[in-house]
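Can't attach files on this board, so I'm pasting raw text. These are the components:
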Amino acid sequence: AQKVTQAQTEISVVEKEDVTLDCVYETRDTTYYLFWYKQPPSGELVFLIRRNSFDEQNEISGRYSWNFQKSTSSFNFTITASQVVDSAVYFCALKAYNTDKLIFGTGTRLQVFP
Amino acid sequence: EAGVAQSPRYKIIEKRQSVAFWCNPISGHATLYWYQQILGQGPKLLIQFQNNGVVDDSQLPKDRFSAERLKGVDSTLKIQPAKLEDSAVYLCASSLMAFRRSGMSIARETQYFGPGTRLLVL
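---
Top answer:
Structure tokens for the assembled complex are below.
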């Protein structure tokens, strides 16, 4: 069975702090995709990144970085120098290669205070 | 490029009433998904269309929920009659359809979501 666990329900930080959102997944598939989505108060899920299971290189995009570790089944997301606009719920999701169904975690609510 | 459009954005109804949601996917996206997101949870897939055919509706409560995508573009999701536990955000997403392999079409990996419809059943 596939499962995504985001153990952190809510995180609060002060602006300019770095913050890491954890994601642990379970799957028996050898080929799969991992995603991060951002859900601001407006409700729309905004795609942030997709990573396939064969690519364990870490990725950096501006203040965002992702650490994919297959050995620990984790795909963690770090925001450097957080800003108030980063306040949102962040979802990690898993998809097997041969299906289209996204399995979401329960999300982590990030609040960045000025 | 326009994103996924949904309407209405908000809806309040009483239990046992009917309600319908509309979704227009990103132009050219053959695959369309409806998700239900209950407060405090991640989205859960209700139904997936590829063009106008249903690919997966295993988690759709078919006694009260129905969906269609008659012309392979926009789609409607209906609840009839609504229950209190249907209060949720209903998200529509779309993705490109990728190559055919062994006779199967596989949707592109990334799903793009609309703003959702927030439903409150009283």
